[in-house]
Amino acid sequence: MSISQNLQKIRSFLDPYKTGLIAVSKTYPSETILEAYNSGQTDFGENKVQELVSKYEVLPKNIRWHLIGHLQSNKIKYIAPFIHLIHSVDSFKLLKEIDKEAKKNDRIINCLLQIHIAQEETKFGFSEEELFITIQSEELKTLKNIRISGLMGMASNTDNESQIKKEFQHIQKLFNQIKSSFQSDQIKMEELSIGMSSDYKLACESGSTMVRVGNAIFGSRNYL
Ligand SMILES: *Cc1c(COP(=O)(O)O)cnc(C)c1O
Questions:
Q1: Of 131, 127, 153, residue with least CA distance to 140
Q2: What is the pLDDT of residues 203-213, one digit of tens each?
């Protein structure tokens, strides 16, 4: 199937849920992204700053770029002028650094807090405890140039659907809890970024507002 057919098929699944689609274009060249763009896709996700910036420079300026991979403090400055949403904020320190760079650019940068929901040790993210410490922090109120607009999570890499469901329901519960009790100038819970190629259907059942899908749109990536 072509990229445009894949997009159509995924969108028709997402539409009844009103879930947005981030096309994860990491490792794919700009021509491939342009093909998806020309069939109406405007939100793209990348996991590396350098790759994201070099694609931003050559592709249409109305593309909304999402950073979905681990971000190092010293690289924030390269994306701060234009990034649409950072999904992968995994520490309070990083949030403070993003605020600084956003201020230099005289803008507010929307951020999602990445929550560790999978069983694997290796995935980045806040624990539940760290999450609640962060959102209740007094210092957060001084960060006028960031907005926490939701949560992001990655489920365990497993075929066990009930395990994946359990993890998605867990992050959905945290999302709803914060939304009902901790909204403020800095915290506006609007986006729950869960679901990838293998589990986006399950994520929709758990209230995903945006899925991050790569393979199922562009075909398998070739890792070296
Ligand atoms: C690569 C990646 C995705 C997309 O994965 P696919 O299996 O290609 O759909 C989603 N989220 C993150 C954080 C990723 O790094």
A1: 131
A2: 999 999 999 99
